[in-house]
Design a protein that fits this description.
With 356 residues, the protein is an alpha+beta fold. It contains nine helices and seven strands.
Length: 356
């Protein structure tokens, strides 16, 4: 018998002894009260032998009743307490060992609103959330590794080629430019990942100030003119005059990422419509542009980190699939929402709502 079993037996014996003493006290008090009342009412006198026999029988009855109550209480505790607790601890040990596929069934015989079944329900939800987070973490690591591998391989390959003394000046300059572009791509990717990590851990927006949201969007459009002009894209802004109270730097990230995403995936010669309107302590911006080959069944995935609906097109535009994730993190920090819609075939629209 190990220490755990010994402790359980000692606990059971102590519980039985306490129950026995309590019942003996209660029954003895009741019997004395009953005998005293009956003796006064009927004038009965009990002799010593009769009292001794009654005491022995009462003691035996108390012993049996307390034993029976202890067994019943033990069964009740095992069914309603020990068994559920053991199932929960076993499942918790599996999760601690790394098995996140644990799922507990509700305990039969207990009401759905019973405390243990409520705990089991929350436990299953926790296991599901942990499993999702683990999958997301694994995908994130795999995506980061994949995205970093390509430019690093490019830099390594062209740096090796530069060691060839027979290269012409034109070839050497071309290889150097490729290395520079790959280095810049790594720098942008690292900055995006750091921004995303910082924003996901920022629960409160600080350093708020009042500024013109419509003017900030106009400045964003002007800064990106080389990008949308190169694709012969027209911008159609419909911006209300709105004074907004928020963090200027973070809010600019939202407009920049949404417009940058629209320019990257808009068809050449097409147009991008921007509409800004304000409400009571809120601001709403919607962007819409034609996008050929749009898969409307995957709109929700557009906000996943490193997700790109068309990887070949993303490589041409220099996208890494992080911009919308950054924008969504900023929007959520403002207690707002960001969603993608398809108002008509071949057209994608992003709607962002911010709250002060």
């Amino acid at each position: 018998m190990n220490e755990v079993q010994t402790a359980r037996w000692l606990y059971a014996a102590r519980r039985y002894l306490l129950l026995f003493l309590f019942m003996a006290f209660v029954v003895t008090c009741c019997m004395l009260l009953f005998l005293n009342t009956m003796q006064q009412a009927m004038g009965i006198v009990f002799d010593k032998e009769g009292i001794s026999l009654a005491a022995k029988r009462t003691f035996g009855n108390i012993l049996l009743i307390s034993l029976l109550c202890t067994v019943i209480d033990g069964l009740r505790r095992w069914l309603l307490v020990t068994r559920p607790v053991r199932r929960i601890t076993d499942a918790a040990e599996k999760i601690m060992a790394g098995d996140l596929s644990v799922h507990m069934e509700p305990i039969r015989g207990l009401a759905p609103q019973d405390g243990f079944n409520v705990i089991i329900d929350y436990f299953n939800r926790m296991a599901k959330e942990l499993s999702g987070m683990e999958t997301l973490r694994a995908d994130f690591i795999a995506n980061v590794s994949h995205e970093f591998k390509t430019p690093l391989a490019t830099i390594s390959g062209y740096a090796t080629l530069l060691q060839d003394d027979t290269l012409s000046d034109e070839e050497r300059n071309e290889y150097i430019n490729i290395i520079i572009q790959s280095t810049k791509a790594l720098t942008r990717m690292t900055g995006n990942i750091l921004s995303l990590s910082r924003l996901e851990n920022q629960a409160i927006i600080s350093e708020k100030e009042s500024f013109r949201a419509d003017e900030q969007i106009r400045q964003c459009i002007l800064r990106m003119e080389p990008l949308w002009a190169a694709k012969d894209i027209s911008i159609f802004p419909e911006l209300e005059r709105i004074t907004w109270n928020g963090n200027m730097e973070l809010t600019a990230h939202i407009w920049n990422n949404l417009l940058d995403n629209a320019v990257k995936y808009a068809d050449s010669g097409g147009g991008i419509r921007l509409r800004l309107e304000g409400g009571k302590k809120s601001v709403v911006l919607s962007t819409s542009n034609p996008c050929a080959g749009l898969d409307t069944t995957q709109l929700d995935k557009l906000f996943d980190r490193f997700y790109r609906p068309d990887r070949s097109r993303s490589k041409q535009t220099g996208g890494f699939g992080v911009g919308l994730s950054i924008a969504q993190s900023i929007v959520e920090a403002h207690h707002g929402s960001l969603r993608a819609e398809c108002p008509e075939e071949g057209v994608i629209q992003f709607v962002v709502v911010l709250h002060e």
